[in-house]
Amino acid sequence: MEAGPRDREPTAPDIPEASPGLSPDGPEPEDETTTPEVEVELRPQRRMRIWQLAPIVGLAAIGSLMFAFPLAFGTGDGGAVVAMLGLLISCCAAGWGMMAARRVGHTWPGLPTRASGERPDWRVIALYLSVAAALVALAIWRVARLR
Fold first, then answer.
1. Which of 108, 113, 114, 136 has a CA 20 to 30 Å removed from the CA of 120?
2. What is the C-alpha to C-alpha distance for residues 129 and 139, in angstroms, rounded to an integer?
3. Distance (Å, whole) CA 90 – CA 59
4. Whole-number Å distance between alpha carbons of 135 and 116
C-alpha cells in the first residue's frame, strides 16, 4: 500500500543552484537596507475624547449637586422644584454619556456589542430596568416628602 500525500516527507521544488535571488521562501530582497513592512491600522482607535467627556461630567456634577442639596438640607419651598430639575439634568447627562459610549463601541455589561448580531438576554434587560425603576421611585418619593 502506497503512502498518502500526508505521509510523505515534504520535498523542496527543484531550484537550479545558478538562479540568484531565489530561495524556498520566495525571492530574496535585493539589498539589505530596505526597511521592513509595518502594518498600520488605518482607522483611529474608537475611544471617548476629552471634548466628549467634559460636558457630560460637568452636567452630571451640576445636576447631582442641584438634586442633593435640597434633599439633604431641605431649603425652603423651592427645594422640590430644584431637586427635580437636578434629577432631570443628571438623567440627561447619563443619557448623553450612554449615547457617546455607544458611538465608540462600548456596551453595558451582559449585553452584546452592536454589530455582533446576537440578541440581548431578557433577564439582563429586566435587571437593568428594575434597578432604574427603583432608583426613579426612590428619587420621586424623596422629593415628594420635601413638601
1. 136
2. 15
3. 7
4. 31
pLDDT in tens, 93-107: 888 888 888 887 788
CB atoms within 10 A of CB 86: 22
- What is the DSSP-derived secondary structure letter of residue 84? H
Question: Please, what is the angle between helix 50-73 and helix 122-145, to 10°?
Answer: 40
Do 74 and 82 touch, CB atoms closer than 8 A?
no
| CB half-sphere exposure, 6, CA atoms < 13 A | 0
- Is the whole model's pTM more than 0.85, yes or no? no
pLDDT per residue over 18-66, tens digit each?
455 556 666 666 655 666 677 777 666 667 777 778 888 888 888 888 8
17 has a pLDDT exceeding 60 = no
| 83 and 146 Cβ atoms separated by less than 8 Å | yes
CA 70 from chain centre, in angstroms, equals: 35
Residue type, 84: M
What CA–CA distances, in Å, run from 79 to 60, 92, 130?
Answer: 19, 20, 27
